[in-house]
Design brief:
This protein has helices at 19-40, 81-94, 110-122; strands at residues 50-51, 62-66, 72-74, 77-78, 99-104, 127-130, 133-134. With 135 residues, the protein is α/β, with parallel strands linked by helices. Helix 2 (81-94) packs across helix 3 (110-122). The longest helix has 22 residues, at 19-40.
């Protein structure tokens, strides 16, 4: 079989050019890296009080946030007193040493925070922590 010297080949292309694929993947990766922090961090706006002393708390299944206007949320979802009590009872049944972490806005009335503590203590939670921002 003789080959032509001109370059008119009838052979199938057996190579894949991966450079455009790599470029597209890198662009997609950059887009995910930029948007992931905005998507992954839904939060409740709570302006925590500042304190110089304080220890770190262990992660908990009872994270209660109280906003300045008195609205409460449990683990990031809005909750009522009854919902918090039910979740606390459920967690105490699983682990008697469960700890509740209360994040109250610094403008929240003191009575509301005491009410939340009363709810979790009434459900059998023996330990609780109050979140602060370090000075």
């Amino acid at each position: 079989m003789a080959m032509k010297a001109g370059g008119d080949h009838d052979d199938a292309i057996s190579e894949i050019n991966v450079v455009p694929l790599v470029d597209i993947i890198l662009v997609v990766l950059i887009i995910f890296m930029v948007t992931a922090p905005m998507i992954m961090k839904p939060s409740i706006k709570v302006n925590l009080p500042k304190a110089a002393s304080g220890d770190s708390a262990t992660p908990s299944q009872l994270n209660i946030a109280v906003t300045a206007d008195g609205h409460m949320s449990l683990n990031g979802t809005p909750a009522s007193d009854e919902a918090i009590r039910a979740k606390a009872l459920e967690q105490v049944a699983k682990n008697p040493e469960v700890q509740a972490i209360i994040s109250a806005d610094k403008d929240t009335p003191h009575g509301k925070v005491v009410g939340v503590i009363d709810i979790v203590k009434g459900a059998g939670v023996k330990k609780f922590a109050i979140s602060i921002d370090k000075k």
